[in-house]
Amino acid sequence: MAEHTVKAFDEDITHLRGLIAEMGGLAEVSIHEAIESMVRGDGELGKQVVLRDKKIDALETEVDRLAVRVIALRAPMADDLREVIAALKIAGVVERIGDYAKNIAKRVDRIENRSRFEPLTLIPAMAEVAAEMVHDVLTAYAARDPELALEVIKTDEKVDAFYDSIFRNLVSHMVENPATISSAAQLLFVARNIERIGDHATNVAEMVHFAATGLYPPDEDH
Q1: Which domain does 119 fall in, by range?
Q2: Rounded to an integer, what distance in angstroms lies between the CA atom of residue 187 and that of residue 104?
Q3: For the domain that residue 8 is a member of, what is the CATH number?
Q4: Fewest CB atoms within 10 A around its CB: which of 24, 34, 43, 67?
């Protein structure tokens, strides 16, 4: 009986991990496509990102249901419980990453005269780093790799540096070209959403590290 219960629990955990991997894959695609739609001014591609977000939300709901069922039926203890709680929290964060991609995609039609903005070359580079963080942190989760999780946390400094540079660039652009204020403000919003994606990938990395080791990463915040 105990052996059957362990096997059933392992199958549930594998299913949870699979759902989160699927969510993460969709979120990654959404980040890339949201930025591509913004750079090209492609409203149709932006709409695809918005539609995909519903699938990410549905997967999060599935993770929630399964995690609650596992806790109720299997009564996991210690490491096993940590694993289920981590899955529950990570799914919630990945869902929010999808929301940020959707928010970017919704801004596509509000940016005019794209060729005027130098930050439009910086924003895709920033998004590339953030998307890589999402990819790497999901790899770390799948492999239960606390060291890779720590690497992801370090990478967030690059995203923050990009944001600071873009912020300064856009503010200066708005001062010199008042007619571009509306579009520049939209780009600031986009950069802020990418910065939040990096923050959320960092949050997942901290949870991955905790799930794998029982300890949060060494950081003055903990």
Answers
A1: 2-213
A2: 9
A3: 1.20.58.220
A4: 43
